[in-house]
Hints:
Pseudouridine synthase; EC 5.4.99.-; 270 residues; PsdUridine_synth_RsuA/RluA
Amino acid sequence: MTTDHEGTPDFAGNPDAAADGVRLQKVMASAGVASRRVSEDLIISGRVRVNGKVVTELGRRIHPESDQVAVDNVAVQLDTSRRYIMLNKPVGVVSSMQDESGRPDLREFTEQFEERLFNVGRLDAQTSGLLILTNDGDLAHVLAHPSFGVSKTYIAKVEGRVSAQTIGKLQTGIELDDGPIAADKARILASPPGDGFSLVELTLHSGRNRIVRRMLEAVGHPVVDLVRRQFGPLHLGTLRAGDVRELTKVELGELLTVSRAGGRDVAGTK
């Protein structure tokens, strides 16, 4: 058994430890988790997992390209070439990198980045809101997979005055042409008297096409304006329509944690 320059065994009695690879604390520092010294403290205190198992030995070496690391049960992206962008997609833009009909598409929001980015899922042209752009194909596959069903929250401006009974119906479930559907959550944000417009918030995990618009139309309240405010753990916040920003480390960790859990579920459906 070999030792590093600090005298710590590479294997430290762990049969799962790699004989080659890079020391864990160095990988964590390179990924921006913390300085190497702080990363060592995190390891010693049992707050770091490699491939789901707690690691406490400083001599542990890993393969960043294949091993998965989490700190305090939050996933860490070790591949620094991956890019994760949040876009507040404006109305009138199609969710495509090259629209064959010549309509405004997502290229205007990705041209500033060196990486070749693509969108995770879609929003129809008349719906604005949160859309993720990335070059992480594995994450995009999991989040867009029908069996995963990431939670999404929308705010809709609809025709007419929405009643509590209608909200109950949306949560209990309604029948559409392509099968039954129920919102995970639904609530009225504003419902003025008369026959004006109401604001409704819907949360659901379905990825079916134009599902929010179809649900609200089915209960007698056609959508006038629709925005997606939340996608999984991500919130649109104050990002203005047409603006983009990189995910924070906290946001990225939460998104990767969700996608890794979903990846195991997706793999189980094969």
